[in-house]
UniProtKB/TrEMBL annotation:
Xref: SMART domains: BRCT (SM00292), LIGANc (SM00532)
Positions that bind Zn(2+): 418, 421, 442
Gene3D superfamilies in the record: 5' to 3' exonuclease, C-terminal subdomain, 6.20.10.30, BRCT domain, DNA ligase/mRNA capping enzyme, Helix hairpin bin, Nucleic acid-binding proteins
Catalyzed chemical reaction(s): NAD(+) + (deoxyribonucleotide)n-3'-hydroxyl + 5'-phospho-(deoxyribonucleotide)m = (deoxyribonucleotide)n+m + AMP + beta-nicotinamide D-nucleotide
Protein name listed in UniProt: DNA ligase
Gene that encodes the chain: ligA
Key word Oxidoreductase present: no
Pfam families: BRCT, DNA_ligase_aden, DNA_ligase_ZBD, HHH_2, OB_DNA_ligase
Species of the source: Novosphingobium olei
Alphabetical list of SUPFAM superfamilies matching this protein: BRCT domain, DNA ligase/mRNA capping enzyme, catalytic domain, Nucleic acid-binding proteins, RuvA domain 2-like
GO cellular component: cytosol
Entry GO MF terms: DNA ligase (NAD+) activity; metal ion binding
BRCT domain sequence ranges: 611-680
Keywords: DNA damage, DNA repair, DNA replication, Ligase, Magnesium, Manganese, Metal-binding, NAD, Zinc
Family named by the database record: Belongs to the NAD-dependent DNA ligase family. LigA subfamily.
């Protein structure tokens, strides 16, 4: 949705969702070293948040992600270190224009004439994790990670084994090392070291890291420093924090000093006199990128003069004097070693390319989807071809080019039978996809349907992942979704299996029990009816409220009842294709069996429209006193999104009062009128439970 013309309630809602989503990805990325989405996608969320905040400044949340650096280290087993000078993040630029705008902004801030030279340093932005090294009288006394910028983790023992980090700085006499100086830089892992570490990890059956950054972070942040010692970590300095003295007038000079003290700095660090220079250096580094021994994700510019840096200061979580110019999606070349066919839930045959492992955009890629028969033909792909891969704003890498398509070799023959059940595989008219016609006899389709049923967007049963589904399916314990709810009868069988303990089985069964009253829309989506996605499922239930009513409408529509058809089509986003798919589904005898069986195990409550799915729907709420975690506007927007009305004063019509400290006279009145009063935390709980 475009930000213009957005209502406050929608904006507040989206900001709330973004704050949650971004916080989750920050935790996964920074605290757990296990990101779930690619950086470009994360960056897009952050941008969207910034856009909304710019348009609705009064809705900026106290927990706004734009003011947060990294992730707090509360749960870390390492001891905590409070940074004397905060460790910051960097703002991003993605285009040349944004770089020019950055320089112009610096000039405006410093009130310099438009043609004044603003020298900047430019260097590669290494993809590792920030580390602050505190030297007192030239000796390393403390090393700390960034954490949330204010409090990081103590990794002094861990860095002791990193050769790039000297225990003592060089150069008394010749160079003056200040009494106290914190060198800041990046702990990273070289690409080659990362690949061989992963090989060793895989052989030993240990965790394989997604990319060098995660490997570096996971290796450094170890309670047992001997683990770190065995990992090939490196360090490059790119700045400094607290210092008793800064013995230079420019960034560039100071970095030279740090290098002279014996701490490595980037060999690609240069000083630029204009944005033209900066962008030229960016291009040069981009060219060199693939050949660098380590992963980089952009170039960092910093205002060279330190007195100017000081005047420019900081905004929110980043310095005004610095900028990261990010690279676009990365490409890499590799060999297509095999083409496997996977059979999906609907019988679709998807070709998957098995690749010689290659790093693209910081992630090792070994598989790539080739989509369908036409895509293979378009690229002229055959086993053995050299291909170009790209990872753009997407986790999913793509083959974008076949470098050896002109070599005279036989074309790939797309299978005309299902590799799982040997049924004929056909493609319906006008469709690109080839499908297995085996339907219910095809084990691949059956197991995929079960996986879909428990997936995140569907029932989302914790602890019941794809592996477990495959395991139980293989044992014949799971034929259809209803069987999941009968697993409790197999408790002792499961406990007897390898990898299962009494406790984990207990957790699994409890998670299953918790879904006996599932959300009706998720349940509908989970059944995997063609063309009924998560959104359509919700829209359908908003109109029909319960599954039996929906089923009746679908069946009537199939029998040609024009009222039922019109009723279905009146739903936004539901067209003839969906109506037909629903009708077909509820016409099939087996589907009805599966359905009835499932509904004998679970009872989804009536579906209530989102804005009213809260304890306060239709009620009048008054906020009073000082609210601590949100603004008054945000509180009102929340109330509206929950279907409540926010009023300014207490009256007999008031249903609920949310009171912060200093609520005073309104509370007295509430007591007189016998109105329920809750505190902010209880309100937050209502908001949370309304989802
Ligand atoms: N995929 C995800 O789920 C996810 C989640 C959170 C963050 N991220 C990614 O992490 C990044 C945001 O994290 P961030 O706050 O650490 O910001 P950042 O990595 O974009 O930039 C700031 C950091 O860059 C590092 N850096 C490297 N070279 C530098 C140099 N030459 N000079 C100065 N600093 C240099 C420093 O450690 C500094 O803290 C983004 O790239 C984002 O896409 C991804
Ligand atoms: Zn099949």
């Amino acid at each position: 949705m475009s930000v213009e013309g957005m209502s406050e309630a929608d904006a507040a809602n989206e900001l709330m969702r973004l704050a949650r989503t971004i916080a989750k990805h920050n935790r996964l990325y920074h605290a757990e070293d296990a990101p779930e989405i690619p950086d470009a996608e994360y960056d897009a969320l952050v941008r969207r948040n910034a856009e909304l905040e710019a348009a609705f400044p009064h809705l900026i949340r106290p927990d706004s992600p734009s003011a947060l650096v990294g992730h707090e280290v509360a749960a870390s087993p390492l001891s905590k270190v409070r940074h004397e000078v905060r460790m910051m993040s960097l703002d991003n630029a993605f285009s040349d224009e944004e770089v020019e705008e950055f320089v112009a902004r610096v000039r405006r801030f410093l009130n310099l004439p438009a043609d004044a030279e603003v020298a900047m340093t430019a260097e590669d932005k290494i993809d590792g994790l920030s580390c602050s090294l505190r030297y007192e009288n030239g000796k390393l006394v403390r090393a700390a990670t960034r954490g949330d910028g204010q409090v990081g983790e103590d990794v002094t023992a861990n860095v002791a084994h990193i050769a790039d980090i000297p225990q003592e700085l060089k150069g008394e006499g010749l160079f003056d090392v200040p009494a106290m100086f914190e060198i800041r830089g990046e702990v990273y892992m070289a690409k080659a070291d990362f690949l061989s570490l992963n090989e060793r990890q895989a052989e030993a059956g240990d965790k394989v890291f997604a990319n060098p950054r995660n490997a570096a972070a996971g290796s450094l942040r170890q309670k047992d420093a001997s683990v770190t010692a065995a990992r090939p970590l490196r360090f490059l300095a790119h700045g400094w924090g607290a210092a008793s003295e800064v013995p230079a007038a420019t960034q560039f000079e100071m970095m030279r000093k740090i290098a002279a003290w014996g701490v490595p700095v980037s060999p690609l660090l240069v000083r630029c006199s204009s944005s033209v220079d900066m962008i030229a250096h960016y291009r040069a580094i981009q060219q060199a990128r693939a050949d660098l021994p380590y992963d980089i994700d952009g170039v960092v510019y910093k205002v060279d003069r330190l007195d100017w840096q000081e005047r420019l200061g900081f905004v929110a979580k980043a310095p005004r004097w610095g900028m990261a110019h990010k690279f676009p999606a990365e490409r890499a070349e590799t060999t297509l070693e095999a083409i496997d066919i996977q059979v999906g839930r609907t019988g679709k045959l998807t070709p998957v390319g098995r690749l010689k492992p290659v790093l693209v955009g910081g992630v090792t890629v070994t598989n790539v989807t080739l989509h369908n028969r036409d895509e293979i033909a378009r690229l002229g792909l055959r086993v053995g071809d050299r291909v170009v891969l790209q990872r753009a704003g997407d986790v999913i890498p793509q083959v974008v080019e076949n470098l050896t398509r002109d070599e005279p070799r036989e074309a790939y023959h797309f299978p005309d039978h299902c590799p799982e059940c040997q049924s004929e595989a056909v493609n319906e008219e006008g469709e690109v996809d080839v499908r297995c016609t085996g339907g219910l006899i095809c084990p691949a389709q059956r197991v995929e349907r079960l996986k879909h049923f428990v997936s995140r967007a569907a029932l989302d049963i914790e602890g019941l992942g794809e592996k477990t589904i495959v395991e139980f399916f293989g044992l014949g314990w799971l034929e259809s979704p209803a069987d999941i709810f009968r697993l409790r009868k197999r408790r002792s069988d499961i406990v007897g299996r390898e990898g299962w303990k009494d406790k984990s089985v207990g957790n699994l069964l409890a998670a299953i029990e918790a879904k006996r009253t599932p959300d009706a829309a998720r349940l509908l989506f989970g059944l995997g009816i063609r063309h009924v996605g998560a959104v359509t499922a919700r829209d359908l239930l908003k109109r029909f409220v319960t599954l039996p009513v929906l089923r009746e409408a679908a069946q009537k529509a199939r029998e040609g009842d024009s009222d039922a058809v019109a009723d279905l089509l009146s739903i936004d986003g539901v067209g003839p294709v969906v109506v037909e798919a629903l009708g077909d589904f509820f016409h099939e005898h087996h589907n009805i069996e599966v359905w009835d069986d499932l509904l004998s195990e679970v009872s989804p409550p009536d579906y209530v429209v989102e804005t009213r799915a809260s304890a306060v729907a239709g009620k009048t709420v008054v906020f009073t006193g000082k609210l601590e975690t949100m603004s008054r506007d945000e509180a009102k927007a929340q109330a509206e999104s929950l279907g409540a009305r926010a009023a300014g004063s207490v009256s007999p019509k008031t249903d609920l009062i949310v009171a912060g400290p200093g609520a005073g006279s309104k509370l007295k009145k509430a007591a007189e009128l016998g109105i329920e009063v809750i505190d902010e935390a209880a309100w937050a709980e209502i908001v949370r439970s309304a989802g």
